[in-house]
Amino acid sequence: METDDVPLDDKAKRMRDLLSSFYAPDPSSTDNAPSNPGTLDAINTTSFDADQYMNLLIQKSNLEALLQRHVEMAAEIKNIDTDLQMLVYENYNKFISATDAIKRMKTNIVGMEANMEQLLDKIMSVQSKSDGVNTSLFEKRERVEKLHRTRNLLRKVQFIYDLPARLEKCIEAEAYVDAVKFYTGAMPIFKAYGDSSFQDCKQASEEAIAVIVKNLQGKLFSDSESIQARAEAAVLLKQLDFPVDSLQVKLLEKLEQSLGDLQLKTNDIENASMKSNDPKQGKVSDSVHISAHEGSVRGFAEAISAYRVIFPESEEQLIKLVQDVVVKHFETTEQYVKGRISSANLLCVLRTIWTDVLLLDEVLSEAVLPVFSLEAAQIALKQHVASTFNYLLQDISDALVRVNASSKEAAEEHPLQVALEASKKAVLQGSMDVLLDFRQLLDDDLHLLVQLRDFIIDWVQEGFQDFFRALYDRFLLLSGRNSSSRQDQGLTGAHGEKVLAGLVLVLAQLSVFIEQTVIPRITEEIAASFSGGGARGYENGPAFVPGVICRIFRSAGERLLHHYINMRTQKVSTLLRKRFTTPNWVKHKEPREVHMFVDLFLQELKESASEVKQILPQGLARKHRRSDSNGSTASSRSNQLRDDKMTRSNTQRARSQLLETHLAKLFKQKVEIFTKVEYTQESVVTTTVKLCLKSLQEFVRLQTFNRSGFQQIQLDIQFLRTPLKETVEDEAAVDFLLDEVIVAASERCLDPIPLEPPILDRLIQAKLAKWKEQNPISP
Q: Distance between the two ends of the chain, CA-based, in angstroms?
């Protein structure tokens, strides 16, 4: 059909419009609708003028528009005809159905009037018979009801007469609840007839009640009775109209005194936690401790509930009382977390507290104990996180402080290496253990911890940031760089004596280990297990910034490494100061052997090399030979100077050679003496030697030598060339510095005549043979 192209909604709307127009109550109302017959929309109004509409359509439309409008109007006409046809069919079907229904009703109604008349006759017959029965039994019913009332009255009278005996039995059995129930049930009768018919019964009952009241009072104030029993006694006294308001303060004092039994015993909980993790230990005694505590809290909660029933106006006092219980629990917890405890132990304590909170919240929800506990738990957990990091810092400090003792005792072959490995383990494994321990707080489903999850993540991240900053300060403190912080109580053992250079070297290498290994590892663990947070506010930035910590420890490693070199150099400088300030160099005697200060100098270098080999790795196998050095010109100049001085024997020629030395300095190539210190054995040892030789040169420049003093300096320096070449990496720079010492001595000499080469070689060979016997292995 053509109507299938029209949407269902449009068809339904058009049918409603047709029905509305057909059943409109006031057809004339549509005529009053405002319309403009001079428009194309006027086709749907009652004032439609076909000729005017066609003229207007022809004027405003072209041929194509007219054809389009023709097609549209033809389709609308078909649709309207179809809708009208369907409307007629539907109304006709409904009319036929209504006609059939009326016919069936007429058929069914036939004969119903006769049945209704028969039913009415039967109802009237039943009513008349019922009236007859009621009339015949009326007197008997009245008599039965009267006898029943009399029987009930006799039962009450019998109960009143038996009441004193009942009360006595209740007193003997201590069934005070039944006694009060009996007496309160008889009170209306005593009030009505107690002064006449039941005077004796009333008097006997009051005497028994007086005994009961006395017993209840004794029970109320008895310390041996439980709180529930005392609360029950107060309820019974109140039912007997006894003035119990005066007992409110005393009963409240009893509740306050019972708070001591609710004290949280962290030792029992901790033992229970430890034994629960040990399958070999029994759990019976531990469960007894926890069950006893839970039983005390449950009894206290029941007493609170009873007290609230007895004294409804005491809600404010009870709220303060239960909040005091929670406050004392968390005060105990805060003291507990100051010690070294695990998160598992803390979880047991928090779980016990939360159980107590839920028990008390059931009977006094107005105290909002869950919210109150959440604030207190936040403080305790934050304190636990801070305390854990403090103990980790203390463990690392203890491992480092032991470096001094192990270095002095030298019981082990490589004490510094052992101390470094122990310190690395304390930092890395200790940090991983801390993260694993804190992970238990996040994995637990305790409602208290679930609500504080974001806070815990932020506290852990902030804790690591603050921990590494504090560790950096502790490194400076242990190395002696931060003297203003020596008031730290945990490091009195480290500052009670001079800081050893080996400890500083361990700290430098440990800083590199923290930067390159510890921080990346911790960053990965935090990203995997402690991501999220945000409770501190995103505007404050991330809580843990590994880049900042890496820069801090990179700088710390460099500073500590230079500090180690300076300490070694200062020790040698002290030796040199004594060497050059003690003798009178102007009156020095002719040299006979290498001075003993050279042995001490080499011994200091040997100790430094031994420490460096234990801590630092070896560098690339390279030697800065004289042929590779930029200072080859200066070195050859030094050899030429030495040969010339050995061949010349008079003062004039020596001073002429000194003038040549000054002229040679103007044309020599620059030798790079001090380069960046690397974390290798060769770099540190070479830098130390360079600084010591530079210090030696400065001490030489401060003195004035005679010929023998200059020759002694020449002999000592020439001997140092061989052992130093076996030790250092940059031979060219060392040769240059040794030559500079000889030049400086010649400049400060009154008569710079060097030793003859045969004498110099003989003295050096004798010392080298002796030195090699004492040191079979190269230092």
A: 113
334-351 residue pLDDT tens: 888 888 888 888 888 888
Label residues 234-244 b or e (16+ Cβ within 10 Å = b): bbbbbebebeb
In the predicted structure, residue 746 carries a pLDDT above the cut 50: yes
Write the secondary structure of 693-751 as one string of H (helix), E (strand) and C (coil): HHHHHHHHHCCCECHHHHHHHHHHHHHHHHHHHCCCCEHHHHHHHHHHHHHHHHHCECC
Question: 49 vs 21, 22, 32, 38, 68, CA distance in Å?
Answer: 19, 21, 16, 9, 21
- 741 closest CA partner among 580, 606, 569, 506: 580
| Residues 232/302, Cβ–Cβ less than 8 Å | no
Instruction: Name beta bridge partners: 705.
Output: 749
CA angle 232, 238, 241 (to 5 degrees): 150
- Write the CB contacts of 362 (distance below 8 Å, at least 6 apart in sequence): 301
Q: How far is 360 from 305, CA to CA, in rounded Å?
A: 9
Encode pLDDT of 549-564 as tens digits.
999 999 999 999 899 9
Of the candidates 525, 524, 523, 528, which has an alpha carbon nearest to the alpha carbon of residue 550?
A: 523
User: Phi then psi for 705, rounded to 5 degrees?
Assistant: -110, 150
What is the number of other CB atoms lying within 10 angstroms of the CB of residue 252? 16
Query: Which structure tokens are listed for 752?
Result: 């710079």
Are 497 and 404 in contact, with CB atoms under 8 Å apart?
Answer: yes
Which residue is it, tokens 């129930």?
Answer: 181
Least confident of 387-391, 529-533, 617-621, 633-637: 633-637
DSSP labels for 89-110? HHHHHHHHHHHHHHHHHHHHHT
If you average pLDDT over residues 11-25, what whole number do you get?
Answer: 63
Closest alpha carbon to 734 in 678, 689, 695, 779: 689
User: Residue 478 in contact with residue 400, Cβ under 8 Å?
Assistant: yes
pTM score:
0.64
Tens-place pLDDT, residues 657-699: 555 555 455 444 445 566 788 888 888 888 889 899 999 989 9
Structure confidence at residue 303 as a pLDDT band (50, 70, 90): confident
User: Nearest 5°: CA angle at 15, between 12 and 20?
Assistant: 125
Tokens, residue 362:
């059931």
Q: At what angle do helices 546-581 and 501-513 cross, to 10 degrees?
A: 160
